[in-house]
Amino acid sequence: MSLKKNVGQTDRTIRLAAAGILVLAGVLLHLWFLSVIGLILLITGTTGFCPAYVPFRINTNKDGED
Q1: Would residue 58 count as lying in a domain?
Q2: Which of 28, 35, 46, 57 is most buried, with most CB under 10 Å away?
Q3: What global pTM score does this model have?
Q4: Per residue in 9-56, pLDDT tens?
């Protein structure tokens, strides 16, 4: 099953940067929930698909972006 990308390049960049910060903070501060949130952002930023956008029909991906 192929999911249509709904996360644009700027959105992905922000997600990946935030993911790094949250995972690092979660590990250093021993707060597992920060690491979990960071991992979710890492997955959605890497794949370009955010399931939370689907019910609201949000799409930050411009036409033609892969």
Answers
A1: no
A2: 35
A3: 0.88
A4: 999 999 999 999 999 999 999 999 999 999 999 999 999 999 999 999
* Domain tally, the chain: 1
In a domain, 61, yes or no: no
Dihedral sign, CA of 53, 55, 58, 64? positive
Helix (H) and strand (E) counts in the chain: 2, 0
pLDDT of residue 65: 60
Residue 17 three-state SS: helix
Does residue 40 belong to any structural domain of this protein?
yes
Query: In terms of residue numbers, what domain contains 33?
Result: 9-52
